[in-house]
Design goal:
With about 240 residues, the chain is mainly β. The protein has one domain. It contains three helices and 13 strands. An eleven-stranded antiparallel β-sheet has the order 5-4-3-2-1-13-12-11-10-9-8. The protein has a two-stranded antiparallel sheet with strand order 6-7.
Length: about 240
């Protein structure tokens, strides 16, 4: 084998066995840490939505003031591959709830297409189980993301650019998105993405990230001030 043939051979091997090729992004970008076949578990605590019901029943009044834990279960996240979506190279992230999840969530799976270029969520789809609605991708500034994931699934992936901009961006006709980044005393970053209507915060998602991590370590989601879900990730 000639020298040029050897070089060509090793280049082809590298492209085959290294599916996530290098990109012109910050090395701390979580997407840059993902490798096909990687997986990790998320321990989820889900809270009741009783407070959203009609309060004609006095027994439900207290539910409006208190968040009640109704289930604890795990969601497995898997880096399933790389695929083009509308000519954009995307990492495929699969999410699957385990058998401890409540009925309606148990047996379901979701897939995200996350851009390798900027971390935007290009597409989201439910791939298994009883339909849980049609989550949609929203545009925030120059990025796209899943602003409100289905109940019971911490699917939100936020592109770094929305926090780097650190400003309020119109989201749809009536809502504003607000993205903030805060350095914590333990060395982690707290990222908060919220949507507002007027002066009211409708939805707020908080993620805590260690420096250079591939996924958040802690997650909380509030809807109109009420805890809806919290979660913690564990890595092998």
């Amino acid at each position: 084998m000639t020298t040029s043939s050897r070089v060509a051979f090793f280049v082809l091997c590298a492209l085959f066995f290294w599916p996530l090729v290098s990109r012109s992004v910050d090395a701390k970008d979580p997407v840059a840490q993902w490798r096909v076949g990687d997986s990790w578990d998320i321990a989820v605590t889900l809270y009741s939505r009783d407070w959203m019901l009609s309060f004609s029943d006095p027994k439900l009044e207290k539910a409006k003031e208190e968040s009640k834990s109704i289930a604890t279960y795990a969601v497995r996240v898997t880096v399933a591959g790389v695929e083009s979506n509308q000519d954009v190279s995307c990492v495929l992230l699969d999410f699957a709830a385990d058998d401890n999840a409540p009925r309606g969530i148990r047996g379901t799976r979701f897939r995200l297409w996350v851009s390798q270029e900027d971390g935007s969520v290009r597409r989201v789809a439910q791939t298994e189980g009883q339909p849980m609605g049609s989550p949609s991708v929203e545009r925030v500034g120059v990025a796209t993301l899943l602003a409100d994931a289905p109940y019971g699934y911490p699917l939100e992936v936020f592109p770094n650019s929305i926090f780097n901009e650190g400003r309020r961006v119109q989201l749809g006709d009536t809502s504003l998105s607000v993205a903030t980044r805060e350095e914590l005393s333990d060395g982690r970053e707290k990222l908060v993405f919220s949507t507002q209507k007027g002066e009211e915060t409708m939805l707020s998602v908080e993620q805590r990230w260690a420096d250079g991590a591939r996924w958040w370590s802690q997650y909380s989601k509030f809807r109109q001030g009420h805890m809806e879900m919290e979660a913690a990730a564990s890595f092998k």
